[in-house]
Amino acid sequence: MRTSYSALTTYQQCPLRFKFQEIDRIRVPKGLEAVFGAMIHNCLKFMFERTPLYPTLDEVIDRFRTIWQNKEITNLNFEEDKAYCEDGISLLKNFYRLNQPWNFNALELESRFEVLVSEQENEEKHVLTGIIDRIDKISNTDIFEIIDYKTSRRMPSQENLDKDLQMSIYHLGISRRWPHIKPENIKLSLYFLKHGEKITTSRSKEDLEKTKDFVIELINEIKKRIENNYDFPPHPSPLCDWCGYRPRCPMWKHLYQSKAKEIPGQKEIEKIIKEYFDLKSQNQKNSKRLTELQSSIYEFMAHENVERVFGENCYLTKTLQERFIYDMKKIKEILEEIGKWDEVAKKKQFSILKATKKKPGA
What we know:
362 residues, 4 domains, two-stranded antiparallel sheet
């Protein structure tokens, strides 16, 4: 299987978005944040290109202004357009002030790589691809530094960075290209442009082997879903705000449908949802009516093929739980044969008593 770090991350964040993007190949326009980030990356690449002299700060800013004026996104009002343009210029000015390009030895910019990952059991091979923003060679040392620019505001903790899949895959990429470099001589850094902060991590040989195992596990999970025609479920999160697939996602499409056209039963379902929330906030005597409303909501969801419905000021989401179903008769027979049934049964009884014992005083 041929895949990339970004595709695997998309799958981890939301399997359904992965399906739309990587399997169905449904193309959607890039969001504003993605477009803005791409423009900043373009200017930073230009900043470190020596032809034969490094560009001045004014040249870098002029490049950003030109790219920004020619952007494809046109639905910004004047204030939004001005704010984003000024933000981009500010980021570039601060970065240039702290990182004059002639003080660094940038070996490669936007460097593409491929990593071969092999499964030991069946010798199946997978290819991981990616693009590294910048690779530096630290002067007078044997240290190489991978640098990835981030325009997002949120900075991860050091603990999370030490486990970050992107950094691990990038390390594998540079190790495959230049196998003579020792793992301990590779630094992995994220540079957060909004804060002017760089955080750095590293990987050991053991870390890299764990990364390969994890990547293979993810790939096999994806392949299993495809081969068995399993669902790729949506995972609602704050990242939904930047997702271009919301109008076709079962968690969001009802919101877009209700705005775009008059859906049969829309006004009625809004009343039902409102009553559902009103009753939910009252006492348990309304449980019967809540069950009836829930049934009506499920029917509407099934009819409209959605997994989230929106009322006037609220919404309801259907969640599915996977549970193992056991044949207790067979389990009892097996455990009795090995003399373990009484022990297990006692433990089960005790755990139930323990769990319910606190109920009266809760």
